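Obj: model holo form, ligand = zinc ion.
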Amino acid sequence: MPEKPRRKDVRPPQKCIFCQGGGTSGNKMSDEHLWSTWLARTGLIPLLSEHVELRGTKPRNSNPVISKFDKQGGAQTKRVKVVCTNCNNTWMSRREKDVKPYLIPLIKGEKADLTEIAQTTIAQWIFMKVLVAENDVYRHYAPDPIFNQITRDSFRISGKIPKGVKIGIGIHTGEEKWSLGFQRHAAGLISSPTPPEPSFNNLRPKNIQTVTWGIGKLIIYFSAVLDPGMERILTWNPDWPLIQIWPRSVLIRPWPPTRTFHPTAIDRLAAALEEFIFHNDPIWMA
Ligand SMILES: [Zn+2]
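Output (holo structure tokens):
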């Protein structure tokens, strides 16, 4: 049976996902834009007046259940209230400032050299945004992050990106859909020689995640597994026109890549994890 949404709205956390502070008069919780405000101001992304958010769950042995939320304002106005003002105005804002010179040519599709420092700075900024996005609250649903507090702490303190994270970037033909598009998929898979006990209401902790994110002409593909044994699920297809920036390469990677993503190819990329889950039910890994 599909999970019946609880009527009561899930409230956003009252504490910062990074420092666990905030929610006080001296340090209020703060809105973090997924598409940073400086991106909207540069005119590099389309400014739309509305967007739709879809939340899908895939209960065991049944079809996915999709909930649709119509939202006022384009996706560029999307805000997630999971960080405190202190974090937002200090180390997070430094990461925004640091990434700008590296990110802007990518979004415009202009020539750039992806040096080691460029790859690292861009990857860290993407990881910061993923940590924020995965803690987003949808009306009836609690967040389903795969990363824990230890990971968030070490990222906040030292910028460390954990093992199992892979990030690639590519360029697309520039249609509106992916110039301002964001898709995140997460699943809870079990590595076991025998099929596991059924989980109640699909509430197994999520341990694998993909994010496909379009900003202007740039396409970002992020994949992460917590269990290294599951890396093969997220094997990247060598035909995808992606330049891997994390784990980074010591070689300078030229930008833009020679091949361009077609929108349908991005759709397929974004749906890859969902496809896998749909065709492998129940999910367990021998
Ligand atoms: Zn904080």
